[in-house]
Amino acid sequence: xxxxxxxxxxxxxxxxxxxxxxxxxxxxxxxxxxxxxxxxxxxxxxxxxxxxxxxxxxxxxxxxxxxxxxxxxxxxxxxxxxxxxxxxxxxxxxxxxxxxxxxxxxxxxxxxxxxxxxxxxxxxxxxxxxxxxxxxxxxxxxxx
Length: 144
Known about the structure:
Elements: H1 10-30, H2 36-65, H3 69-94, H4 98-111, H5 130-142
Helix pairs in contact: 1-2, 1-4, 2-3, 2-5, 3-4
């Protein structure tokens, strides 16, 4: 029997999300004043970064099984910023702190500055409706 290869690995998902985050940060930077699209953009960045942070342990589990503890720890340390910035962005968005959103978006852009997304990308607008998703998750986490 042959090996089963998963074409949608955590690394591919992380790369796809990182490109979408870069596009969303660029679009958020173009916004002149906060509105519905700005909320969707900021919420999408929050949700995508949280998903990126969740993929880290999946990626390093294979290294840990082989005893590559240093490599796994270094990878975790390289990506710890994703979870931290997701939480900062979540707090800022829910509090309508647009200065905090802008500051966090700038930090995220600085972290992802090596990712190139061509102007004619086919990512679409994945942030549409993200604000509603984030509010529902927030309500569910409070038990409402």
